[in-house]
Amino acid sequence: MSDITLNIDGREVKAKEGMTVLEAAHSADIFIPTLCHNEMLEPYGGCRLCTVEAETRGRTKLVVACLFPVQADLIVRTRSETVDKIRKLILEFLLAHAPDSEQMKELAAEYGADKDRFPKSSSFCILCGLCVRYCAEVVKKNAVGFIDRGIRKEISFIPEIASKECWGCKECFPLCPTEALQAAYVLIDSLGSLTPASKSAPEK
Ligand code: SF4
Ligand code: FES
Question: Which residue among 70, 90, 93, 204 has its CA within the 20 to 30 Å range from the CA of 107?
């Protein structure tokens, strides 16, 4: 892989072909906020919080840094009036789901996002997909997945798999930027759906 030099926030940054702008920025200790990215997982591009300005041959466009590949002579601006406005709006929308999440509160303070701009949602999940992808890509069990579509889309544990796999795992819990995952787990557990056969009451 050949070296590529790009410019991020006025600094020359060396990157390898195939890297994303986010990877190049992080390798140079330049912070770009993310909510759906995790180095262990394939890029997803779901939250759009990592949006940056990318300029090539005098033309500027908005791209998501976790998906956009580095290229020679690319000029990246990780903060600008436009970028900050987009991040503020994304955060305000997501805060309707998770106003008490510590990670969201810190981001909201940084971008001046108003947690009350949009009506509160009954779901705490921001649909970042970290739990779903971690279980599929790393644990390879698919014990948690997305159900439904559009505004009804939500995560759900798959009882037949979760009852066998989740008790001793729960590795996805720390990845969740909100409390949605644990809440969903506790809910389905309280309904008895996750009680493994070995722990259920003996039949009389
Ligand atoms: S439950 Fe948490 S980790 Fe899973 S998609 Fe929702 S916010 Fe993301
Ligand atoms: S971190 Fe890039 S879209 Fe979520």
Answer: 70
